[in-house]
């Protein structure tokens, strides 16, 4: 029998970011500049690691601008506590095919590919 890959959404990242970094309505709804995006990324990955340590599954969370409704811009994060590897991917639910950014569906596919890569090549099919 092969290994089972489990990926779980950890709830609470948006609330944590809104309480610590994204404290104004503008910061919560307007696409962040690069310095703010980097701060959000560092904080999000630290939050994710803290909650995922010791778990036997890959954890993921995301934040999107604006937080309610379709995301004009969002960041998806994942962490594998077994390998100590992280994943980060920007996405949009509104950009369509006109921008060079992943859709939410593509982001989900990339998340699953990240999970598969963590476990090496299959020994049997």
Any overview of this molecule?
By secondary structure, this protein is an alpha/beta fold. The chain has one domain (about 5-115). The protein has four helices and five strands; from the N terminus they run βαααββββα. It has helices spanning about 15-20, 25-30, 35-50, 105-115; strands at about 5-10, 60-65, 75-80, 85-90, 100-105. It has a five-stranded mixed beta sheet with strand order 1-2-3-4-5, with helices on both faces. The longest helix is centred in the middle third of the chain and has 19 residues, at about 35-50. The chain is globular, with a radius of gyration of 15 Å.
Fraction of residues in helix: 25-40%
Secondary-structure element order, as H and E? EHHHEEEEH
Alpha carbon gyration radius: 15 Å
The gross shape turns out to be: globular
- Class of secondary structure makeup: alpha/beta
Number of continuous helical runs: 4
- Which regions are unreliable across 5 or more consecutive residues at pLDDT < 50? none
Mean pLDDT: 90
Number of domains: 1
Number of strands: 5
**Biggest sheet character:** 5 strands, mixed
Strands side by side in the biggest sheet = 1-2-3-4-5
- Which band does the percent of strand residues land in? 15-25%
| N-to-C CA distance | 11 Å
């Amino acid at each position: 029998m092969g290994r089972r890959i489990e990926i779980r959404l950890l709830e609470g990242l948006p609330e944590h970011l809104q309480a610590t970094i994204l404290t104004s309505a503008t910061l919560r709804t307007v696409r962040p500049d690069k310095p703010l995006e980097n701060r959000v990324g560092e904080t999000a990955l630290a939050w994710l690691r803290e909650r995922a340590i010791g778990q036997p599954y890959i954890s993921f969370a995301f934040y999107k601008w604006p937080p309610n409704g379709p995301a004009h811009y969002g960041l998806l994060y994942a962490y594998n506590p077994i390998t100590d590897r992280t994943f980060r991917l920007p996405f949009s639910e509104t950009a369509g095919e006109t921008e060079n950014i992943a859709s939410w569906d593509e982001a989900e596919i990339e998340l699953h590919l990240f999970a598969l890569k963590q476990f090496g090549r299959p020994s049997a099919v």
